[in-house]
Amino acid sequence: MVRSLWTAASGMLAQQVNVDNIANNLANVSTTGYKTQKVQFKNLLYQNLQTETTSANNETKPTEAQVGLGVRSAAIQLLFKQGSFLETEGITDFAISGDGFFAITDDFGKTLYTRNGNFYWAMNEQGGVTLTNSEGHPVMDTTGNPITFDKGYMTSKITIDSEGNFMYPDETNNLRKTGKAIGLWQFQNPGGLNKEGNSNYSETAASGQAMNEISTAGIKRSTMVQGYLEGSNVQVADEMVNLITAQRAYELNSRAITTTDTMMQQANNLRQ
């Protein structure tokens, strides 16, 4: 078996994963709340060609000869760098400045976390309104319950302050707190979150338990801005450079396979 064939093949497979990931980043450059993903590589086992030994004169050879057997993609890392704020003027569009996540409940009752603050008011069975995402999943308040208002509230007049408290004008048209607020949660290791699609993440053992910003001591609280959304943190120029680098690496591994094939062909022709 020729090692170089399998080594170069592993390099091509790893770079294909890298290109797939870069393409996904570029495809989501306009996705609200999307976070850049980066492929991490890991080299494979090494084969010993010569171990530490001594020469004929009993002189020590301190170094050994090892040859690598290739590479593989080990992980895809999430980079939670703050994205830029995009003004929308939507009354239910909220951007987070800080490390917090919104919480929503899916159709199966599972709590998901997101940085996508593109929400909507939806009519509920009681005749009031519930704050939901685009798929109709309710957004959680600071107590972990859906955010709802009865039919006496006009949604066009509901606003929030920087801490996420919902405000509503009183009889004198002065804004007053309604007693409800959008909940925000943080994680000790957000890079360990599990990607669920639709800019949603779920809690894992690697991420640690979700920490409610309003009730957890020792964490810096995030702030919110109404009428804005957090854009993707993908840097197109960086991704294009990474794409060129991955393409060149793929070509080099392909060239290594071609070179190995040529050498094997020449060796086969020696008997002629």
Give a structural overview.
- With 272 residues, this protein is an alpha+beta fold.
- The protein has 2 domains: 3-80 and 234-269, no CATH class; 85-230, no CATH class.
- The protein is 22% helix and 32% strand.
- It has helices spanning 3-27, 236-269, and strands at residues 36-43, 46-50, 53-54, 60-61, 65-68, 71-79, 85-87, 94-97, 102-105, 111-114, 120-123, 129-132, 148-149, 159-160, 165-169, 175-181, 185-186, 194-197, 200-202, 211-212, 223-226, 228-230.
- The strands form 9 sheets. Strands 9-10-19-18 form a 4-stranded antiparallel beta sheet, with no helix packed on it. A 3-stranded antiparallel beta sheet has the order 11-12-13, with no helix packed on it. A 3-stranded antiparallel beta sheet has the order 14-15-16, with no helix packed on it.
- A hairpin with a 5-residue loop joins strand 3 and strand 4.
- Helix 1 runs antiparallel to helix 2 (236-269).
- The radius of gyration is 27 Å and the shape is elongated.
- The protein starts with a helix and ends with a helix.
- The mean pLDDT is 91.
Give the topology.
Layout: H1 3-27, E1 36-43, E2 46-50, E3 53-54, E4 60-61, E5 65-68, E6 71-79, E7 85-87, E8 94-97, E9 102-105, E10 111-114, E11 120-123, E12 129-132, E13 148-149, E14 159-160, E15 165-169, E16 175-181, E17 185-186, E18 194-197, E19 200-202, E20 211-212, E21 223-226, E22 228-230, H2 236-269
Antiparallel strand pairs: 1-6, 2-5, 3-4, 7-22, 8-21, 9-10, 10-19, 11-12, 12-13, 14-15, 15-16, 17-20, 18-19
